[in-house]
Amino acid sequence: GDCIVAVTADTSVTATFNAAPKAMIGSTGYTSLATAYAAATNNAEILLLDTELLENLTMNRGIAILLKGGYRADYLGRSGQPTVVKSFVTIGSGSLTVDGLGVK
User: Fold this and answer.
1) Three-point CA angle 3, 77, 67, nearest 5°
2) Closest CA to 67 of 88, 81, 83
3) What is the pLDDT of residues 54-87, one digit of tens each?
4) Dihedrals φ, ψ of 46, to 5°?
5) What is the pTM of this model?
6) Which one of 25, 58, 65, 77 is at 20 to 30 Å from 3 when CA atoms are compared?
7) Which residues pair with 65 in a beta bridge?
8) What are the helix (H) ranges across the chain?
9) Half-sphere exposure in the Cβ direction for 1 (13 Å, CA)
10) Pick from 94, 65, 69, 70: which is nearest to 80 by CA?
11) Dihedrals φ, ψ of 77, to 5°?
């Protein structure tokens, strides 16, 4: 049920917020696309937060990955907004498939 608290005097409140991971593989969160790629196995599906990523990605591990962008912070579904990578994606070896991703 609902919890209702009446505050009758000056009150101090503390809150802690955790940043949503930029990328997810399964149930593991990563602080960047590059760290997710470094941990990925062949044919991994990397889910990306619906934000702008200001980082370069160099694919040089010879694996195939799928990048799926546009996920909400809880990663339970997509927000309708793409993930935008505002830097370079270089494919030296391996293959890349994208869904819901923009590159600027």
Assistant:
1) 145
2) 83
3) 999 999 999 999 999 999 999 999 999 999 999 8
4) -105, 120
5) 0.82
6) 77
7) 44, 96
8) 33-39
9) 2
10) 70
11) -175, 175
Contacts of 32-39 with C-beta under 8 Å, sequence gap 24+, read 33/57, 33/67, 33/85, 37/61, 37/65
**Angle at the Cα of 33 from the Cα atoms of 94 and 60, rounded to 5 degrees:** 25
| C-alpha span between 73 and 52 (Å, rounded) | 13
Token pair recorded at residue 76: 């339970």
Q: Which residues of 31-48 are buried (b: 16+ CB within 10 A; e: fewer)?
A: eebbebbeebeeebebbb
**Tokens encoding 10:** 């000056």
Return the amino acid letter for 50. D
Measured CA to CA, the distance from residue 69 to residue 99 in angstroms comes to 6
**CA contacts within 13 A on the Cβ side of 17:** 3
Do β-strands 23-25 and 28-30 pair in parallel, antiparallel, or remain unpaired?
A: antiparallel
Which residue type occupies 12? S
Helix (H) / strand (E) containing 38: helix 33-39
pLDDT tens-place string over residues 17-39: 778 999 999 999 999 999 999 99
